[in-house]
């Protein structure tokens, strides 16, 4: 069960209206795949549906409407959805009134063809058309198929209050789409051109979350560094959000190295509640590959940004994304990636095997690195990064860190999981502490992924 911040006192009314709502709209179950932007979109589309007489259910067996909010970023992500759709076919047979819809990036990429592949599919909706969902559901009930896949140059859902789960953290989508057109990336085609939400509405939303006790806010966008609204840029927005939210931690993702300004680094340094953490995808250590990827920077540029970040914010944690086996990547290019990892000493890295996506520029290049070689290179990258992360973590043994407790440890309810502001995961004994507490801990032991500590 979730809440919207204008809705808190409505539970009684909600119960009274429940049966009516179910009659009018129905129970909606949404499964979300992919990145945080998709999870944020699910909160938006649920808000739209709730305002139109629908009701959310967490039980798929109760649902009158099932939506899969999908990701297209890798072939593997789409394959997962295809197999999920096949498994829903049986459910649809046993419950003919059930509406099944496919939303998000995959709906936008594959479009109408999905109806040919899955004749039981009722509805396809792209990320910019969620306002139409109530009407599309009504048209399905009239016996039609529902499709809305137009990309918008203006839609930001600025006026929609997301339907959020009560929790320690909340994300705020500050912009949509991307204009960077990295040659491997499908996002500009599935999420459209870049547009920023209005400055004041973001600050208002952040302030409301702070009043509701949210402990960490994550500002989201495909490339938050290029946020612009009238005269305000992302550094202005970050400071304003930090000012409006007391000691709430503020994070943001994702950053593109090309747009990361010194002004932004100074903004991060200037406010205590802005987390000292930067996720800065580099993708490759080779200038030749970066050019083919259309990344708009060289390795020298990238290192200059990292150096500046460390000069202005010495304690900053830095992570990155790396792709192995991009078309044309030679052993020499791969070695340059390993060299860069050594030089930069990232705290952590998200690593991927190159996955060709139809419609992108890179799709036209010959996918000439054999899968086995891609895998071998990937494991060399992972092994090197693990060694570096472990060394960085070892230096933290005996140090004091503040963490925000986010959840129970996955392994045991006797332990809690928290994060430092540099985004390091710390496990502590449960003791008398609770999710949402800020506590100071001493680091006792480490591995390459996790720190273990005790509260001091
Ligand atoms: S910056 Fe590049 S990788 Fe990121 S969403 Fe935009 S096109 Fe894709």
Describe the structure.
This protein has 456 residues and is of the alpha/beta class. It folds into 3 domains: 12-148, Rossmann fold, CATH 3.40.50; 164-394, Alpha-Beta Horseshoe (pyruvate-formate lyase- activating enzyme); 400-455, OB fold (Dihydrolipoamide Acetyltransferase, E2P) (Beta Barrel), CATH 2.40.50. The chain is 36% helix and 23% strand. It contains 14 helices and 23 strands. The strands form 7 sheets. A 6-stranded parallel sheet has the order 3-2-4-5-6-7, with helices on both faces. The longest helix is centred in the C-terminal third of the chain and has 24 residues, at 371-394. The two termini are 35 Å apart. The site of iron/sulfur cluster has 10 residues, from α7.
List keywords for this structure.
single chain, alpha/beta, pyruvate-formate lyase- activating enzyme, 3 domains, 14 helices, 36% helix, six-stranded parallel β-sheet, 23 strands, 456 residues, 23% strand, five-stranded mixed barrel, globular, Rossmann fold, binds iron/sulfur cluster, disordered N terminus, OB fold (Dihydrolipoamide Acetyltransferase, E2P)
Q: In CATH's first tier, which class of the largest domain applies?
A: Alpha Beta
Q: How many extended strands?
A: 23
Tally of separate domains: 3
Low-pLDDT residue spans: 1-12
How much helical structure, as a percent, in the residues?
25-40%
Termini gap: 35 Å
Q: CATH topology of the largest domain, anyone?
A: pyruvate-formate lyase- activating enzyme
CATH level-two architecture of the largest domain? Alpha-Beta Horseshoe
Q: How many helix segments?
A: 14
Q: In this structure, how is the largest beta sheet organized? A: 6 strands, parallel
Shape: globular
What is the H level of CATH, i.e. the homologous superfamily of the largest domain?
tm_1862 like domain
Strand content: 15-25%
Helix/strand-derived class?
alpha/beta
Give the C-alpha Rg.
23 Å
Distinct small molecules: iron/sulfur cluster
Write out the strand line-up for the largest beta sheet, numbering strands in chain order.
3-2-4-5-6-7
Arithmetic mean of pLDDT:
94
